[in-house]
């Protein structure tokens, strides 16, 4: 039997092999990451609506797992954020070879 005949005879075996099923834990993790990375959450900037949605999503899943919050006010604790911005023109760099 030459090589071509062996390949042709093996094709039905390859075609009949069951497809590998993704790991359920990996699918679950990917689903969570897909949601948390979605543009729907608007970048999740601190204190933004997207940040609040992401925090509630995570807290809801923690509660569903039977975890209990460590804080005194449930899953979320309010904190004050400070924001800083650079004043003036942005810095630039030129590389001249």
Helix/strand layout:
Layout: H1 3-16, H2 24-36, H3 49-64
Q: Could you explain the architecture of this structure?
A:
This protein has 97 residues and is mainly α. 44% of the residues lie in helices and 0% in strands. It has 3 helices and no strands. The longest helix has 16 residues, at 49-64. It is flat, with a radius of gyration of 26 Å. The N and C termini lie far apart (63 Å).
Short précis:
By secondary structure, this protein is mostly helical. The chain is 44% helix and 0% strand.
Tally of helical segments: 3
Q: What is the residue-averaged pLDDT?
A: 80
The secondary-structure class comes to mainly alpha
Q: What oligomeric state do the depicted chains represent? A: single chain
Total DSSP E strands: 0
Features:
flat, 97 residues, 3 helices, 0% strand, mainly alpha
